[in-house]
Structure formats: structure tokens, C-alpha cells
Amino acid sequence: MSRKEPRLYFPHDLKQGVSLALSHDQTHYLMNVMRLGSGDHVRLFCDEHGEWRAKLDVQGKKKAGVVVLDHLRAPQTRPFLGLAFTPLRPHRLSFLVEKAVELGVSDLFPVLTKYTAVRHVNEDKLRAAAIEAAEQCERLDVPTLHPLQDLGQFCGNLTPSQHLYFCHERQEGGLLWDHAGSPPKFPLILVGPEGGFDAQEVTFLKGLPGVTSVSLGQGILRAETAALAALSLFHGAPRA
Amino acid sequence: MSRKEPRLYFPHDLKQGVSLALSHDQTHYLMNVMRLGSGDHVRLFCDEHGEWRAKLDVQGKKKAGVVVLDHLRAPQTRPFLGLAFTPLRPHRLSFLVEKAVELGVSDLFPVLTKYTAVRHVNEDKLRAAAIEAAEQCERLDVPTLHPLQDLGQFCGNLTPSQHLYFCHERQEGGLLWDHAGSPPKFPLILVGPEGGFDAQEVTFLKGLPGVTSVSLGQGILRAETAALAALSLFHGAPRA
């Protein structure tokens, strides 16, 4: 097995022949972590320009650039798959984001509910976790991270074409699995905090159009596991 | 929301009225982490005796026992759901085990393949991770952790009633999703190492009876994500 060329998310104007500077972190990663030198190949990608091969050009101990060579993959339009989740402790939240990126999420919506214990998110850290996961998993895009909203705002911003699956712990009724075979065009998954949803929130959500209340089965899943289990169901399913 | 009583996996002869000693770790957890004192309630469970309520009896700064009170839940027979996985770096492996326990796995099979980078597992640590996850997620049992085997041994030990889904990255052909609607009675999932399976291993696996080679979709999933995505499909599905 030949070793794969490192990939960097690089949202700049990528085209053949241009020279571009690398950030301090990117330089450190390529030179010190991956131990590359001048002339070694890397791959650059972004949502708009797809993936390109480039050549590393070391200019000093802590300074390097790249020269863009050939086009490897055209940009892709990713089908919409939204995940709404409440903030969690940093370790579990980074994990949730990493796995959600691998499982093809297109939009991340942090949402506050009544029983959300952690009341803020570090957007920079979450975005960095999303980029790192995209670099690792051969994606050509990085999901959109939406600003933190409360549950009412989030629901108010849903469009008529979006369909929200409200994952309700211990709820009686349909399993999400019953819906996963032929998901709608714009599916969104909402997973609650460790403390669950408040009764008023449940009533509110159940009363909204375009919302289906579903269960994730009998077991008790942690918030991040519930998100991943739900995303897994849509990851491989053909979209309606 | 009332706080739930802490749960401890406690594979002893649980019955009403008996007094039992707690281990050093259990005592520390209840007294120092959960800050419980004499008379506070905890829950004890094991595969054989189900779940019981018990009363903490503090006997010293670092010494405590319990008195078993009433029976809360009868033991459950869990349907067989096996996961075969290659060793990973400790952080990712603990995570894999934690999530597999939540997603209802009954049997964990660490397996060595040609490209497995990490060549051993710390069985005590894995078992501890499985127990902790079971304590958290309201399971009444802890999955069986089988000893490390190489791929040939593992396949040689499969029984005719078991059906192995060999999750093969980038493979052409059926998706695991096509099989998840009506899984067989004894499904097993096999997920490879980061480096993938060797060509000879693929030929070997495809030639075995009771093995179906399946894909997990177009994305590249890390080993632990692949395991979780695959388990998620069987977690909620009714068994044939």
C-alpha cells in the first residue's frame, strides 16, 4: 500500500500553476508531523474547486508554500443532511462532529433546549474539528456550521421542504429505522441533551408541520451515540 | 428531573437482604465521585440476576458495603449481535467499545489481520470500558469479550447459524443497508483496520459460507465509525 498524500482543506482560488502560502499550522503539520520536504506532494481541496495535487515549497524553518499542479477531483454537490444537536462537553462534542462529518452531514445546527447543561459552543473549535475530519475522510467539502440558536428559533427557521426527525428517547411509536429506507430530500435529525426534552418542548415539536417524532429503539443512547446512530441510517440510504 | 441512582455492575449472588462488600474502586466512585453516604440508594445489576436496589453502608473512609433491598428488573436475554474489529489505538478502541455497548452488541471479537497496525489489546481495559458503558446505558448485561484471534482462527470458529457481514471498504456490490431490514438471528459484523484488508484476506472471506461482503457506502469511514454505522443498522431493526 502506497502512503496517501496528505490532504489539506484550502478554501482559496485553486488553479494550475499558482503559488500559495501555507498557514503556520499547515506548515508545521506538513514539515514536522508528516515530515515532508520541498517537492513532496500534498492534496488541497475545497467546496468550490474540488481537489488538486500540489507541490510543497519549503522557504524556511517555519515557512512554506505550495505550487498547484493538476486537478484530481471536481467539486461535488453534497445532498442535504442536517444534524441539530445540543452542546455537550468538549470531548464528546468534538467526537460527535468528527463522526458526523464522516457520516456525510451537510449542515450542523447547535441548538439550546431547556435541559441543555452546556450552554455555549466554541465555534472555532467545532469548525476546526469539522475541517480535520473532512481532511481525513476524503470529503471534498466541510459542513456548514450554523450559529447557536434556541429550539424555538431553530424550528422557526425550518423551510417547508425540510423534514425534521425529532429523536425522542423512550418515545412510543415509530422507529427512525422505519423512515430510513426512503428519506425525504432534505432530512434533518434533532437529538436532545443528556437530560432529555422537556414536556413543553415535546408538545411544541409534535405540533409543528414537517416534524416526525421517532424513537431510536429500546436502549438508552448517549446524545452523541444517538446522533451517530441516526446519521448512520441515512448515510447509505438512497435519497427519495 | 430527579437524579438517577448510580448503577454498578455487580456479578455476585444478588438477593434481598444480603450484605456485600464493595471494591476499592466502587467505594471511591460512590463516596468521592457521586458523594453518597450511608443509607443512600444505588442500583446493582448483573447478567444473571437483573437489577436490584441497594443501600450504601459506609464503614470507614475507604471502606463501604451495600445491603440489597428490592428487585427492580428481571434479567434479560439479549439477542446475539457480534462485532469483530481489529485493535486500534487505545483512545479509539475504548470509544468503539463504549458505543458498541450502547448499540446493543452481545459479543466483542478482537481480530488480527495483515494490516492491523496495533497488534495487541489490553483485555482488562477493554472489559472495564465495556462495564462502564453498560453501567451508564441501563443495560442489564455486559458483552462477552472474546480473546484476540487472527482472522483465520476467528473464521474457523464461526458456527453454521452465524452470519458474517464483511464490511469491505470501497467494495462494489450490495450495501449493508440492503440487509439491515431483516437481519438473521445471529448476525456478526466484521470491520477491518485503517489499512484495509489484504487481497488474499478478501478472497478468503468471500469464499467462506455464511459470509456476505457488503459496503458501507461511498464515504471513507474510520474503523470505529464503520463499526458504529454497521451496528446502528441492526440496533433498532426487528430480528428475523
Please, could you describe this protein's structure?
The structure is a homodimer of 240-residue chains. By secondary structure, the first copy, chain A, is of the alpha/beta class. In chain A, helix 3 links the parallel strand 7 and strand 8. The model of chain A has no long low-confidence stretch (mean pLDDT 92). Chain A is built from 6 helices and 12 strands. Chain A is elongated. In chain A, helix 2 packs parallel to helix 3 and helix 2 runs parallel beside helix 6. Chain A has 2 domains: 67 residues, Hypothetical PUA domain-like, domain 1 (Ribosomal Protein L25, Chain P, Beta Barrel), CATH 2.40.240; 154 residues, SPOUT methyltransferase, trefoil knot domain (Alpha/beta knot). In chain A, 27% of the residues lie in helices and 27% in strands. The interface between A and B is medium-sized, with 34 and 34 residues.
Write a brief structural summary.
2 copies of one chain form a homodimer. With 240 residues, the first copy, chain A, is α/β, with parallel strands linked by helices.
